[in-house]
Amino acid sequence: MPHMLKFVPRDEVKNLFSNAQPSNMMQYLDDLKSVPENSPIYDVVALTAPEEQGGKFVTIGKLVLDGKFTTSKWGDEHLFFRHQRQDEDNKLKPEWGKVLPTHKCPFGF
Fold first, then answer.
1. Distance between CA atoms of 66 and 38, rounded to whole angstroms?
2. Is residue 37 assigned to a domain?
3. Count: domains in the chain
4. 5, 11, 24, 107: most buried, per Cβ within 10 A?
5. Domain span including residue 50
6. Distance between CA atoms of residues 14 and 35, nearest Å
7. Angle (CA) 17 60 79, round 5°
8. What are the tens digits of pLDDT across the range 80-95?
9. In 3D, which of 55, 65, 69 has the Cα closest to residue 6?
10. How confident is the model over 62-79, as a mean pLDDT?
11. What is the pLDDT of residue 15?
12. What is the pLDDT of residue 76?
């Protein structure tokens, strides 16, 4: 189980975009359409344990488009991601909890 995942943008994709903030959402969506189909867009990097406990970042894969970017109302209304709660991770790896900061989330349950 990785301690942390990072999605590192691939140079061939991130260099397609300006660092300037898009003036509106449509400009941002138009920029995404410029990404070539089937492009690798991120390297997936995992931290093997907290860095304070000797964890190292290792590349475990890449995220590749399956075709072209497209817009969809379904994605806007139905696609959501569940994030793992830190206390659930601590049950699996109690030794990690010794070095992790504890945060009180204002949206916690």
1. 5
2. yes
3. 1
4. 5
5. 4-72
6. 9
7. 60
8. 887 777 778 778 888 8
9. 55
10. 89
11. 85
12. 82
